[in-house]
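ok so I'm stuck.
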Amino acid sequence: MSTAPSKTLETFANPEPGRDYTIRMRIPEFTCLCPKTGQPDFATLHLEYVPDKTCVELKSLKLYVWSFRNEGAFHEAVTNRILGDLVRATKPRFMRLSAEFGVRGGIYTTVVAEHRARNWKPMAAVALP
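replied:
not stuck anymore, here's the structure
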């Protein structure tokens, strides 16, 4: 059992591949380093996706997120990198990553990046009273 940071994202078979459903995760302990000052940046990541054939395994996701702790990265770059790595690992129908960073220089930053599979069409939203 690994207890060290890792860039490896593991997956498992989607238990309901014939159905569109959404998986939502809140990851409140993301940290990386400011590439200009080396000071820590803190963020809450919000991941939501519609899986196709595979889902991301949570422990590997935790170790993957941990692997950024000592890396310098601009908010925009790290958000898109994480989304790209998750898309390559899981090949979802849809995936959105929102990264809400804590204040830096009096400015709060939220970066939202999305992926849509080429032929995927979302189902119509259902409005309930």
